[in-house]
Amino acid sequence: MKKRVLFYVGLPLIALFLLIGVWYVWAELKSRSGITFNHAFHDKTVGVGCELCHQQGAADPRFMSFPNHETCSACHADAIDEASPQKNCQLCHNLPGYVTQVRKNQVLSPLVRFDHRVHAEREVSCDSCHAVIDQEVLAADEMLPKMDTCIQCHAKRKVSEVKDCYTCHLKGYEKIAPPSHIANWVSVHGEGLTKEKIDVSCLACHQAKLAGSCTQCHHPKAGGAAAAAKAPDCALCHGKGFQTRRPKDHTPLWISAHGKNLTQARIDANCTLCHTARNGSDCLSCHRREAPKNHTVAWTVVSHGLKARLDRQSCSTCHDQSECVACHTTNPPFSHTGLWGSPFDRHCINCHMEFNNYASGPVGSNCSFCHQSADVYAAHKSLQKPGHFVGSDCTTCHKLAGGAGPNVRHPYPKFSAAAQCVSCHQ
Amino acid sequence: MESQVSEKPLIAPLLAFISLCLLLTPHPAPALDFHARVETRYQLQAGDNALDNDLFQYHFLELSFLKNFTFSWNGGVRKDLDGTVNTLTSGNVEKTDIALRGLPDAVNSDQSLEYRIYSAYLKYDIGRFGALLGRYCPNDYEFSQFDGLLLWASPFDWLRIEAFGGKPWHYGYVSDFSYYWAADEFIVGAGTDCLLLDQKLLLSLRYLFLRELTRRDALIGAPAETYLSSDHLSKVRLAWTPVPWLNAGIVASLLGPDPRGLQSWVYGSIEPWLLSYAVNYDMQFIDIADISDRLTQFSSFLGASHPYLRVSVDLTKSFSSYFRLGGFFDDMELELSYEHRQPLSEADRSMFNPQYDQFRVGTLVSVRGGWSMLLFYNFILSTGLENDLHAVGGELCKKWDKFEARLGSSYQAHRFESDYTQTLVRDSFYAQEYYVRLKWIINQFFDLSLKGSYENVLLSSLTGVMNDEVVYAPMTELFSEPRNYFRFDLRAGYRY
Fold it and tell me: What domain range includes position B90?
């Protein structure tokens, strides 16, 4: 039994180790250029300049050429000449079959824009980019500059032509993941992540516009509170103590001004990134427990009406009409003295109708704002029927100023003369 | 329709919430992604002709489970402690609490205790597709709040399509449950958002059909009557952000087949200068009186009833480097703001379409040790019908690591005219406020805050007589003496 266990467990393990070993050797060989070349020796000791071996490419002048047998034979004729007894292929070639993979490994990605001519014209020395030449003995990948090298140099030289990623990269570059982004990268990328690492490494590519940036998963705009909840630790991106720092536009008067020009789209795109119900700072959480700063007791009593006259659109950011109606059905505005409540009922023409139209238009043209019943409208229309002619004494039928009369009451309580009736009821 | 109060057991939603809290206790099930916040607030408003003594508790709960499901609950309970409701306003007492907003789902007979659910839903979201069942408020649809189902799909990154339907909630119902359940009301909506031009252009289409029970006044003095009214609302919105400092857009809407309104805007913020600007143009084509026989919430009179143009510019500048502030001073910022509102029709400067200029200046000085001082002055100068306002205020603030204290005051003076058909009535309003605010973040779970304020208010009429013969009841009858108000607000929050 034991043997069977050992067989069934051990054999796959051995096979697995063998497979890993083969894969490792194969990967190592594939990564090697196949050429042994001591750049440092040629540069420092022999004093051979780069241009002796690398010339501007004939086919594509943006690239430098790689040396071939003919180039090297200028100095190493005996080692290369097949007829020579000094011939020694292993002096330069280190892969089985003397395979060379220089071009395959070291040619620029097709999605990178780079022109050696431009840099040569601006007298950028070779070792500015290929800085490890004087240290390495192998012609290897390490000699190629990393993107950081470009960024740092451009920043140092204040290269103004670099505007965005597309200055150096062709369209589609964002689909090429760097070597670190292995298959399970999504699930492991958070391990050991620090703000410094994000700033230095991640943000070089993961700008807001790039697919896969932090905010698209952890903090998607328009995702609301639920999306913001995916952020494991805000301080990871924002740094410790970020909660007490204000965004740039949260200026001294921000609290009183943030409602200006506010739309739902702006709330979704900006506010909900930080202000969520989860942390008790979304619109509802804040304004429910604490109204805007100017919503004092005096605001409830008088001020809101005055402000509503100036800019009702601001009110509509939080309130809709039904809230006004719900309250003012039973609570008259202070200015509505004598016009509100039983027996006079509310009369809204002064605020909610077009005064100019009312004064100049036909009687009752806007009465239907409040008096939506056809009966009411018809009743007022009858003012123009025969019997209601100019010069009539209205008070004959319609007693005013508290006087007893027929069922028609007037909303203005203190009209005392018929002359006042015709000012409206023409 | 007389306002009716339906007695619905308050205990049911409370028990439901407590049960949920117990069921979803995070400790035995640490794998659950559970977030909650419970906030309890005591508010006292007292003063001349005013007394209100209330206790509130707000509940927020969010639970993610089975990878793609989320349950969310947002509600609040209000208990009237003094047996009266808000008597701040004149006339009848307030029967509903605007501060709590939302809808009373359960009230007791004297309305001293009520529970409201702002939203409560179960959401299934797999990125490209999602569904939501429960109470929800898609704000892009004219604040429509409904109990029903919302579905959305996003087949491409640049496209989102959504549709919903259900029973509409609106504030006007107050506590009238019988109408809510009995009335043949429903709401359906659909919309799409397309991101074009490398996400720089957003095209949104919205359609909404609402059939709701509404109320209208009949003959003067007669009881109001109810009727079913319906509206179709369609909106198209185009927003363009070519560069970070420019956002421009236009919204056009139809009410049924008729044009309803047009809004357009340009705004932006130039960060290096800390300069922001905004130009808005709004107009409404439809006259509220023309549609008074089918008023729904879409026919809201909020918003411009006439075309107007509004331009504003804000400038904020930090002078810390300019003055080489150091040592004692941390920073000094100055903010300037100007806004102009212009009705586009010369003959149309009615009370609700005013022309005014608004100026605002503010400064914030912060010094070492967490002290800061804010000062501001706000001035509105209206043209035509007078509605001028002066407001000045300041606040002194001290911040510690977990504690924050603010002491502030503001003064405002307002002179305004009301257009009473035949006569202009001129009034003045004056208010001063002093307040203290304290906030203590005890630990990552608990926080406590307090606000106490005192206000002194005077409203006086400058016009005692209307015309020659009509004597209008002067407002001095109401505010012949300055009034004093106190407000005390104590709040404790627990967050998990």
Answer: 1-117
* Interface residue B404 vs chain A (CB under 8 A): no
Nearest CB neighbour to A375, from listed B218, B374, B427 = B218
Q: What is the pLDDT of residues B176-200, one digit of tens each?
A: 566 666 677 888 999 998 888 877 8
Count of structural domains within chain B: 1
Q: Report the 10 Å Cβ neighbour count for B493.
A: 21
Collect all residues of chain B within an 8 Å Cβ-Cβ radius of residue A253. 335, 337, 360, 362, 376
Q: Which residues of A touch B289 (CB under 8 A)?
A: 353, 365-366, 368-369
Report the phi/psi class of residue A221: left, alpha or beta, with left for phi > 0 and alpha for psi in -120 to 50.
beta
| Average pLDDT taken over every residue of chain A | 65
How many Å apart are CA B252 and CA B234, to the nearest integer? Answer: 8
How far apart (Å, rounded) are the C-alpha atoms in residues B227 and B215? 6
Alpha-carbon gap, residue B9 to B474, rounded angstroms: 46
The pLDDT mean for chain B works out to 75
The nearest CA of chain B is from the CA of A122 a distance in Å of: 31
Segment B66-75 mean pLDDT: 85
Q: Is B9 or A8 the better-scoring residue by pLDDT?
A: A8
DSSP string, A123-142: T--HHHHSGGGGT-SB--GG
pLDDT over 50 (residue A386): no
Q: How far is B106 from chain A (nearest CA, A)?
A: 17
Nearest CA in chain B to A313: B303
In a domain, B101, yes or no: yes
Residues of A in contact with B412 (CB under 8 A): 303
A-B C-beta contacts closer than 8 Å: 298
Spatial contact of B355 and B384, defined as CB atoms under 8 Å apart: yes
Q: Do B41 and A414 touch (CB under 8 A)?
A: no
Chain B residues with CB-CB distance to A334 below 8 A: 90, 459, 475, 478-479
If you average pLDDT over each of A352-356, B64-68, B110-114, B392-396, which comes out highest? Answer: B392-396
Q: Are B35 and A229 in contact (CB under 8 A)?
A: yes
- Give the phi and the psi of residue B222 in degrees, each rounded to 5: -85, 155
CA gap A349, A358 in Å, rounded: 8
CB atoms within 10 A of CB A191: 6
Please check the confidence at residue A221 and state whether its pLDDT lies above 70: no
| Residue A45 pLDDT class (50, 70, 90 cuts) | confident
CB A376 within 8 A of CB B218: yes
What is A242-262 written as a DSSP string? GGGSPPTT--TTHHHHTTTT-
Assess B95–A contact: CB distance below 8 Å, yes or no.
yes
Q: Compute the distance between CA of residue A16 and CA of residue B262 in angstroms, rounded to an integer.
A: 70
Spatial CB neighbours of B373, under 8 Å, sequence gap ≥ 6: B364, B365, B366, B394, B395, B396, B397
pLDDT exceeds cutoff 90 at B435: yes
Q: Are B356 and B308 in contact (CB under 8 A)?
A: no
Residues of B in contact with A335 (CB under 8 A): 418, 425, 427, 475
Handedness of CA A149, A152, A157, A159 (dihedral sign): positive
Residue B298 lies in a domain: no
